[in-house]
Amino acid sequence: MAEALVVRGVSKRFGGLRAVADFSFSVNEGETVALIGPNGAGKTTSFNLITGYYRPDAGSITAFGRELVGLPPYEICTLGLARTFQVARPFGQMTVLANVMTGAFLRDRRPHIARERAREAIRFVGLADKENALAADLTTIDERRLEMARALATEPKLLLLDEVMAGLNPSEIDQAVGLVGQLAQRGLTIVIVEHVMRAIMAVARHIVVLDHGQKIAEGTPRTVVGNPEVIRAYLGTGYAHPHPHATD
Amino acid sequence: MVPIKTIAIVLAATILIALPLVVKNAFALDICIRVLLFAFIGVAWNLMGGYAKQLSLGHAAFFGLGAYTSTLLLIRLGISPWIGIVAGGVVAMLVSLPIGWLCFRLRGPYFAIATIAVAQVLMLLFLKLRDFAWGAEGTTLPNLGNAPLMMQFGGKAGYYWLALVLLALALAITYRIERSWMGYYLVAVGEDEDAAEAIGVNAPRIKRDVYLISAFLTALAGTFYVQYIYFIDPNTAFSFNVSVEAALVSIVGGIGTLWGPVLGTILLEPTSALLQSTLGSGRGGVQLTVYALILMAVILWRPTGLLGIFTDTYQRIARRG
Amino acid sequence: MFSTVAQAVINGLLIGGIYALVSIGVTLIFGVVKVVNFAQGEFVMIGMYISFFLATKLGVDPLLSLAISMPALFLIGVLLQETLIRRVLGLGDMPQIFLTFALSLLLMNVALLLFTANYQTVHTAYSDASFQVGPVYVSVAKLIAFVVAMLLSGALWLFLHATDMGKAMRAAAQNRDVAMLMGINPNRVFSVAVGLALALAGAAGSLLMPFYPAYPTVGQVFTLMAFVAVILGTLGNVTGALIAGLMMGIAESLGIQFVGADSGLIVVFLMLLVTLAVRPSGLFGGWSR
Amino acid sequence: MKRRHFLATTTAGAVATAGFGTPLLGRAAETINIGGLYPTTGSLALIGQGCVNAAKLAVQMVNDAGGIKSLGGAKLNLITSDVQSDPTVTRTETDRLISSNKLAAIHGCYASALTLIASEVAERAKVPLITGSSSDQLNKGRTFTFTPFARASQFAQAQLRMSHLVSEKPKVAVIFENTAFGTATSNGLKEQAPGENVEIVMFEPYSAGFTDASPLINKVKSSGANMLFSVSYLNDLILIVRTMKQLGANMPINGGSGGFVQPEFYKNVGKEAEGLLGVAHWNHDIDADAQRVSAAFQKQYGEFIFEYAGGLVAQTFMLADAMERAKSSDPQKVRDALATLDVSRGYAAMAPGGKVKFGPDGKNVYGHPVGVQWQHGDLASVFPSQEARKPLMKA
Q1: For chain C, which ranges sit under pLDDT 70?
Q2: Which residue of B has its CA nearest to A107?
C-alpha cells in the first residue's frame, strides 16, 4: 500500500519549550490513524506542522510523494490535505452554504458548480436544512459539521480532523463516528486527533501516542491501550489500571 | 419581480444622469459631486477594508500618487489628464506591491498604523521634492476654461457626470467581485485568515490582488479631485482625512456591502456640508463637535453600519408583501 | 562633533520620556482591553489645560498639579471605559478604532469651543532655565519632566508586578479567561487599565506645561509618536513602549541633526517600517515579562 | 468733507425712517454681500478667528460711515465661512458662498495654500478676490485676484536688508517650516541673499508642528551663524525662541511674518520676545488711521490688531471704494473698479507707503513690507527708515 503521509524526524521548539521532538510516523493511503496523548502532548502542533502553519526546525514531511516543509497552508491544501481546527473556525458572517462554497472554489471557480458541490458536502454532513443559516448562529455540533463540510468541499485525499468530537454528547459522538466511518469507506485517508477513546476505538485501526512532544507508543488500539508507558503518560505513575475514557 | 427591479434601476439611473440638467444651484451640485467622489473612494476602500477587513488608514497614498502623476504629466508634458488618470492608477498599482508586501505581514492595528506611516512617508517625500513636484508650495492647475479634452469643464455638470461614471465603475467592479469566487475568498480572509488558508485560499495573493484594484481606483479619485479643486500640494494629496473619510463612510454605511459606502457618504457628506453652512460662520468648533457626536452615535448604535436598517426594513416589507 | 551628538542625544532622550509616558498608556489599553486608543493625545491636551488653569487661576505649580490631573484623568478613564469602550468590545478593530477616532475629534473641538485656539503657556522659574554639563545644555523643565516620567513608569511597572490588580492586568493581556479564573472581575480590570493609561497621559500633559504651550490640537502629534513607539515596542508591551518611546525621541533628534530638520518624522517612520519588515511583531514580542 | 458725510448719512436715515415708497436716489438701498473665507477651526483657527473679528469690525466701520453712498447708502453685509484649514472644504465653501449668495467680492483665506484654491474658484466664477496672502503664485495668470500688500519675494528682501541693522557681516541661519508659506519665503531669502550681501550658513526646512525644538536649535548653534531667520507659524516660533534660551543660543532673531507678528506670540514668550525683529505687510502703527483701527479692535478684543487682520480692514475699504466708483455691486464691475483703484488717503490707503494702485498682475505697485520689532510688549515699525515709527532698540 502506498504511503499517503510520511512524517520523519520532525522537531519544533517555541522559545524554551520543546513542543515536538524527533517525531516520525506514517499513514498509508485509505487508512485511518489516530493521534492521541494528554493535553500539551504536541498533537495540535503536529497538525500545524503538517499543514504548514508552523515550519519544523528539523525533519521532513511528505504527502503523496511531495515535500510539504516550506509550503504555505493553502498550497498544502491544494495538494489534497484538508484539516479542521480544534476550536471550529467558521466564517461567522457567511451562511453555511457560502462557507462551504468557499472551500469548493478551490477546484472550480464557477459559482454554480461550487454551489452544487457545496450542497453535496452539506448534505453529507447532515446540515442541509441549515444551508442558509448564518454560521455564527450554529450550535457546537453544527459548527463541527460545517467545518467538516468545508474541508470536504476542497476534495481532499487526506483529511486531518482535530478533536471533532470534543464537547459532544454521546449520541452526537455516535453520529460523528458514523460520518468519519463513511468517509473512510469512501477511501479517504484520515488522521484524527481525539480524546474520546470510544470514538478512537471505533474508527482507527492504527494509533500513535504522543507525550511531551515525543512518540511513546504506536500500534493497534488494543496494544496501545495496554501499554504501561501510555498509562503512565495519561494517569501518572502508580495507576495500575488503564482507564483511558476518563482522560478527556 | 425582475422587471420591477429593472425599471427601478433604469429610473434611478435616468434621474442621476439628468440631475445636473435640472439642478442649477452650484452648491447643491458641488455637494452631489462630493458625495459621488467620496462614495467612489469609499467603494474602492471597501473592497479591501470592508470585504477582506484589511483596515487601511493609508489610502491617501494612492489618492496622492494618482493626483501627482496626472498633474505632473499635465503641467510638465502637457499630457491630458484623461491619459494621466490611467497612468496615475498604474503608478498606484505598482507602488501598492511593495507596500502590500510590507504591510500584509501585519494584522489588525499593526496593519492600520503601518499604512498610516506609509502615507505619511510619501507626503514627507513629496514635501522634499521641491524642484520636481513643487514641494510644499504646491501648484494650481492651468485654467483652460471649458476644455473637456483636458478634463476641465465650464460648469459643474461635466465634473458631476465624470464622478458618476467613476462611481458606477467601482460599483460594477465590486458587484462582479462580490458574486465571484474572489468575493467569497475576500470575505473568508477577512473573517479568519488561517481558516481560509486551510481550505486552499491563497491569502497573500488575494490580498495583493484586491489591494491592486483598490489602489488603482483610489488613484483615479486623486486625479479627479485635483482637476476639480484646481490645486495640489502634498498636504492635500496625501491628507490623512482622505484615508479616514474613505473608511468612515464605509463604516457608517456598512462595511463589506455593495451599497454601504454609498449610503454612508449620502448621509455624512451633506450632513457635514449642511453643518458647515449653518454653523460654520459661528464660533469655531461647533460643526465638528456635532459631526463627531453623530459618528459616535452611529458607531455605538449600529456598529455594523446603517445599511442594515434599510435592508431589514426592506425584508420586513417584502415578507409582509 | 562629540558635543553636537551628545546634545542631540540628550535632547532626544528628554522629550522621549514624554513620548514614553503617552506610549505606555496606549500600549496598556491595547494590552488589556485590546482597543487602540486614537484619542490618547487628546487626554494629554486635557492634562495640559488642567495644569494651565490651576496655574493661572490658583497659582499652582504645573508639577504640583500632577496630583490633580492624574486622578482627574483616571476618573475620566474609568468613565470612558464604562460608558463607551465597553460597548464596542468584541466588535472587531473597526468600530473600536473609529469610536476613539471620533472621540479625539470631539475632544479637540470641544476644547476649541471652550478654550479657543489660543496658545496658553505657563511661565515658571524653571521654564526656560538650563544648566551646562560640559558642552551640553540641559533644560531644567525637561529634565524634571523626564525624571518624573521615568518614576511614574517605574511605579506602573511595580504596580503590574506586585499587586493583584496589576497581575490580573498582565494575565488579562495574555488570556482573558485566565484573568477571570483569578477571580477578578474583568470589567474592573479594564476600567483600572484605561484609568491608569489616561492618568499617564494627564501626567504627560502636566509635565509638558512648564515648557510647552497648550492648544486644542496639541495632542495629535503625541498620538502619532505614541503609535509608532508602541508598534516598535510591540503592542501591549509596557517595557517595550518605554524603551521605544525613548528611542523615538533620540532617533527623531538625531534625524533632525544629521539628516534634515524636516526629516525627523521620516527617520522615525522609516525606522518603524524597517522594523516591521524585519520583525513584524515589534522589537520586544509579547507582554512585559 | 466730514460734515457732508454726516449730512448724507442722516438724510438717508431720515428717508428710510420716514418710509417713503421710493427713496430719493431712485433705488432701494440694497445690502451688498461680501464673502469672507477664514479657517476658524483646525490648526490655523486662532488667526482665522482674529481675521473674522477684523472683517466684522471693518464692515461696521464702512456701514457706520454711511455705507456705499453711490448706491443710496447701501450697507455691506459680511458672510463668513469656516474653511477649516482644509483644501476640500475651501473649494466647497468658496463655491457655496458664491453660488448661494449674490456676492460683490470675497476676501480670504490667510493661508497661502487655501487662498490659491479660493482664488482659482473665484477666477472661474468671475468674482473678485482680495487677499493679504503673500504667495507670488497669486499674481500669475489671474484677472480677478488682487493683492494690495507685499509679496513673499519682497518680504525676503526686507528681511535680508534688516540683517545689516544688527551685524556688519551677517551670517544667517535660515530655518523654515516646510509649508507653502515657509518655502515661498525662504526661497526668496536664498535667491536674494548674495545681492544683499548676506551670507547664508544654514538653510533648513523643518516639519511644522514639532514637539521639541532643541534638535533644530542645536543645529543652528553649530552652524556658526550670527543671526537666525525663522520662517514659522506661531507655535513653532514660541518653542524656537524659548528653546534658544534654554540651549544658551544667543543671537538676534528675525521671526519674519506669520506667527511672529501675533500679539499671542508676545503673550507666550514674554520678555524673551523683547528686541526680536520681524517683517509684516501691515502694522498697527503705520499711520493715524491704523492706530484708530487698532484702538477700536483693542477695545473689543483686548489686543492690538495684528498684521493680517489690520490689512483686512484696509482691504474692506478698498472694496468699498471700488463699489463707490463702480456705482454697482456687480462682481464684474467691482473687479473693473478695483483694477483702476488708486488711493492715497483714508482707510483704503492704510498700507505701508500709504498708497495703493493695482498693476495688471493684481499686485499693488507701491506695496512693500515694514520691518518690525517687539518693544515693551508692543510691535513697533522700525524699517525702512521712511516707515520707521520707533528707533531700533538695541538688545
Answers
A1: 175-183, 285-289
A2: B200
Q: How far apart are CA A161 and CA A200, in angstroms?
A: 12
Residues C113-144: tens digit of each pLDDT: 898 877 888 888 888 888 888 888 898 999 99
H, E, C per residue of B154-209: CCCHHHHHHHHHHHHHHHHHHHHHHHCHHHHHHHHHHHCHHHHHHCCCCHHHHHHH
- For chain D, the structural domain boundaries read 3-149+286-364, 152-280+371-387
Query: What pLDDT score was predicted for residue C270?
Result: 85
Domain spans of chain B, in order of start? 26-247
Q: B191, B279, B289, B298: best mutation site toward chain C, by most C Cβ within 10 Å?
A: B289
Map grid coordinates 493609561 to a residue: C197
Residue C183 confidence (pLDDT) = 67
Report the mean per-residue pLDDT for chain B.
89
CATH superfamily of D152-280+371-387: Response regulator (3.40.50.2300)
Q: Which tens digit of pLDDT belongs to each residue from D291-322? A: 999 999 999 999 999 999 999 999 999 999 99
Cβ-defined contact of B201 to A111 (cutoff 8 Å): no
Q: What confidence score (pLDDT) does residue C121 get?
A: 87
Strands A3-14 vs A58-63: parallel, antiparallel or unpaired: antiparallel
Question: A67: pLDDT confidence band, cut at 50, 70 and 90?
Answer: very high
Looking at domain C2-278, its CATH class is mainly alpha
Query: Which chain B residues are Cβ-neighbours of D135 within 8 angstroms?
Result: 137
Count Cβ–Cβ pairs < 8 Å, chain B vs chain C.
116
**From the candidates D41, D51, D129, which should be mutated to test the interface with B, based on the most B CB atoms within 10 A?**
D41
**CB-CB under 8 Å, D79 with B229:** no
Find, in chain D, the residue whose alpha carbon is nearest to that of C14.
D212
Least Cα separation, residue C124 to chain B (angstroms): 31
Say if residues C138 and C131 touch (Cβ distance below 8 Å). Answer: yes
Beta strands in chain B (DSSP E): 139-140, 231-232
pLDDT digits (tens, 9 = 90+) for B152-211: 998 889 999 999 999 999 999 999 999 999 999 999 999 999 999 999 999 999 999 999
Instruction: Convert the pLDDT of each residue in D176-187 to its tens digit.
Output: 988 877 888 888
Tens digits of per-residue pLDDT, D76-102?
A: 999 998 888 788 788 888 988 998 889
| Nearest chain B Cα distance for residue A138, angstroms | 16
Contact: chain D with chain A (3+ CB pairs below 8 Å): no
Flag whether D touches B (3+ CB pairs, 8 A cutoff).
yes
- Are C36 and B125 an interchain contact pair (Cβ–Cβ within 8 Å)? no
Architecture of domain D3-149+286-364: 3-Layer(aba) Sandwich (3.40)
The pLDDT-based confidence of B318 (bands split at 50, 70, 90) is low
pLDDT at A46: 92
CATH classification of A3-80+159-247, choosing from 3.60.150.10, 3.40.50.300, 3.20.20.10, 3.10.350.10?
3.40.50.300
pLDDT in tens, C171-197: 877 766 655 566 677 788 899 999 999
pLDDT at position B1: 52
